[in-house]
Amino acid sequence: MAHHEFQIAECSAFSCSNGFRLLAHAGNMSRTQIERATTTRYLDYDQRSKEQETHQADAKDKTEQQTLETTLKKQPKP
Asked: pTM here?
């Protein structure tokens, strides 16, 4: 079964919007609980995002450093 077909079959059992399940009822989380949960999720996402950016910047710096070292080694010595 293709991924798209699976999503259709999966969503047919639930109310869906954009492939995401919707609650069949109003739910039972208070505004404070939702804010706490979303804040925690956002902070986790933000931390992972910053770590990923740091790793990408480090990799770019390392590549640039290696390129510069190679270029300098190829230059004739005075």
From this structure: 0.53
In contact, 11 and 3? CB cutoff 8 Å: no
Assess contact for 14 and 22: CB atoms under 8 A: yes
Rg of the chain taking only CA atoms, in angstroms: 25
Where does residue 27 fall: left (phi above 0), alpha (psi -120 to 50 degrees), or beta otherwise?
A: left
11 phi and psi angles, rounded to 5 deg: -75, -25
For the chain (78 residues), the mean pLDDT of every run of 10, in chain order, is 53 58 73 91 96 98 96 86
Q: Coil, strand or helix: which one is 20?
A: strand
